[in-house]
Fold:
Amino acid sequence: MEHGFISFVLEHIAQFFSYTAFANMTIGHLVMIAVGLVFIYLAIAKEFEPMLLLPIGFGIIIGNIAFAPGLKIGIYESGSVLNYLHFGVLQGVYPPLIFLGIGAMTDFSALISNPKLVLVGGAAQLGIFGAYAIALALGFTSPEAGAIGIIGGADGPTAIFLSSKLAPDLMGAIAISAYSYMALVPVIQPPIMKLLTTEKERTIKMKPPRAVSKTERIMFPIIGLLLTCLLVPSGLPLLGMLFFGNLLKESTVTKRLADTARGPLIDIVTILIGLTVGASTQATTFLTAKSIGIFALGAISFVIATCGGVLFVKFFNLFLKEGNKINPLIGNAGVSAVPDSARVSEVVGLEFDKSNHLLMHAMGCNVAGVIGSAIAAGILLSFLS
Amino acid sequence: MKPIRILTLIIALSACVAASAQNASDLRINEVMVFNDSSVVDDYGNHVGWIEIFNTSYNTVNLSGLFLTDDMGNPTKSRIAKSPDATIAPRSYFILYATGDKSVGVHHLTFNLKNSRMIALFDGNGRTIIDSVALPAMTADMSLSRETDGGEVWTTKNLPTPNSSNWFEPFAGEVDQFKSLDPFGAGMAMIAMTIVLGSLATLYCCFKIVGRIATRKKKDKPFVAKNAETGEEASNEVNAAIALALFLLSKQEHDDEYTVLTMHKVSRNYSPWSSKIYGLRKRPGGLSSF
Structure:
């Protein structure tokens, strides 16, 4: 009787142990947990994109706590809570909601006062198609290459939206890569900007932006939506929400809605998207040769995008009169890592002329980059889905 | 007697139909993938080898209790668990993932395919073989499949079709055509960049015109100061004084200002110690005479 009881206890302790993470842990899970901890460190200690890296880093840890399958716990197990939350990522629900918030918090005045900056935002999208070409050469399929290329747009929600449509299997790696390089914009961009510009070009002083009337600010989202989405309707989920959010803000009659969109709503969605994207990086699906390739391509796409923006400004300056020229140091801001890349323009500009503030001009390129990358995503979606 | 005979006949026919509805002999191993790198993932997000079973009949078949094995010496190696989900609709498919784990549910087998040379499907008695197939050497993401669903001819292919018909038109889709005609992505880059820059250039032209109209309107309408309360226009002297102040401001020759405009965020941290509720106190009535 006593022997039977002891074996019963031991058997159940052994059974309990088989359900613990220690029994199911692999080296891959440990590696991913270490990656999650690095993300959390970068977010807290270095303040690199903390709003994103912190939820993603913690999500990586959550996703890599090993467990015995079948208990409806994991993000890929249908019926689990995490699986329900992940639905918003898989079906592309969260990114347009984030764009609504971005629209409601973005001031397009810098762009409206100097509309030629919008072209810089377009030129920087070259990074997307450069990475697309290289991914094709490396043997990725066209939809996969398109999803990887969008990392060069430097826009997390857009990257998640497009990869959920074109290559859902690669979405975790693409999202992590996009957010990692966005956080590293202050490290990646300055050397390229300095390499591609002359001393004289770096000290070009641009005209201060003119005051923009309320009517112009209200007209911008309406005209912007019509002009871009009539041409690229597949960009509607992102561009529609972006411009709608901006109209809520600029109309000034829907302050409560605008406040919700740029406040609680975007905060909630950011928490959900960060956590679930992080949790989707389960070691068993994430640690593959493809993921490493995606990381390498992500870095290349950021470099090409920065070069594209800076070189385009230099080319554009050939056709502009003296006094109207653009400082090529704002070309990097064409990638839509808002507002980090604009801050980089300001910091690098001040290195060469303490009185030359480029922030407002760079913000014009920056918000143009958001529009440009959403259009590029729409084009890739219409060709490759 | 006649009605009883008819009734017996009906019951016998119904029993036959019911028996055929559960007839496992209508099942076929339809497609097998041994090394899965990028094909379908199982319920846990893992890429593992899989076996597709096809129901050739026009009745629903229950798979509960059937056996799959990769070892003819051990026909009952992996039993399909009893579950309401273990059914195949008429002419449909059922995927079994060869995870090699014992406790993962109805879609999972207790062996993996990495060292398997053959696959066999056995009836619930563990003796009657329903279907079997020998596995050739296959590379990653290659599958062995019947050319048509349930057909006799087997073939290996690089485009696996889990949970769907094995036969499809040898027609390259638009996306495949895109890659074959534009293998380096140069065409895509040209087309897409033209569209991106074109749409943004349209936006530029539009707001260039809007900006010109807006600035012209401002120029046409001279600035006149107005009294904020009454709305009355200011006198010429007041306008001249404002213009002079603005001129001096632009030349940096203005007086010292006490107000400083800054871009720094003003932080006002809430604390109950600084709250008005605690700062403003009612005057105690009883002490007013003191």
